[in-house]
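Entry for adenosine-5'-diphosphate complex. Fields follow.
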Amino acid sequence: KPSVEFRNISKSYDNQTLVIRDLNLSIERGEFLTLLGPSGSGKTTALMMLAGFEMPTTGEIFVEGQPYSALPAHKRDIGVVFQNYALFPHMSVAENIAFPLQVRGHGPKDLDRRVKAALDMVRLPEISARKPAQLSGGQQQRVALARALVYEPKIVLMDEPLGALDRQLREEMQIEIKSIHARVGVTFVYVTHDQGEALTMSDRVAIFRKGVIEQIADPQTLYDRP
Ligand code: ADP
Ligand code: ADP
């Protein structure tokens, strides 16, 4: 059973133009899949539908075999990381990570355990009392990732998470995210327009163009094409 299936998904924001056209895509459990393509090709829209922030116009997404539209939000088990980390400036790292669970009524013991586990996963144990402004860009990115992992999600979604970082840090974080993926072992769906990033990080790359997947293959196969 695949982790995620898009079945005949189309999406229009204005009831006229389709920004996703009859998308069929199967993502394996534990896979690192990257959606690669130019700006406007529909990558973010695909990701937002999987995050539950946008509804498909037609078709159905299945997560672990369940029709996604029928699942209540708290059963969706999806963690999301955006480019602008959206950390709360007045809260410490630990408070930032705990906040979404607190809102949902998790008790202090469970919170504590999950926050520790999430910080451990991104290898940030020693800074949990700091505020976001006291962190480097790479550390902020890890906190954002920890905040997604604290849900203990089955799927992690990342939309251009390294877009705000300088080149060297971006390369370090590519390796870091890859190793976090290996450690956590859940499905990662990653959006970028950076081909090098896609080829470095992914098990498979889906190349988007004008709302359709033009090609989907592992990096080696993509490289080998004449
Ligand atoms: P990408 O992530 O590949 O840059 P997007 O999914 O963001 O592509 O955008 C695909 C198309 O959908 C673009 O033409 C964009 O302008 C349009 N679009 C994206 N989000 C919205 C929205 N909330 N409302 C209307 N149009 C949108
Ligand atoms: P609930 O639906 O239990 O009231 P929330 O209002 O906290 O939960 O959030 C609505 C939905 O958005 C939930 O399914 C939650 O998992 C999801 N959500 C919000 N922020 C994030 C995030 N950073 N990562 C993953 N999912 C998130």
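NOTE: The longest strand covers residues 4-11.
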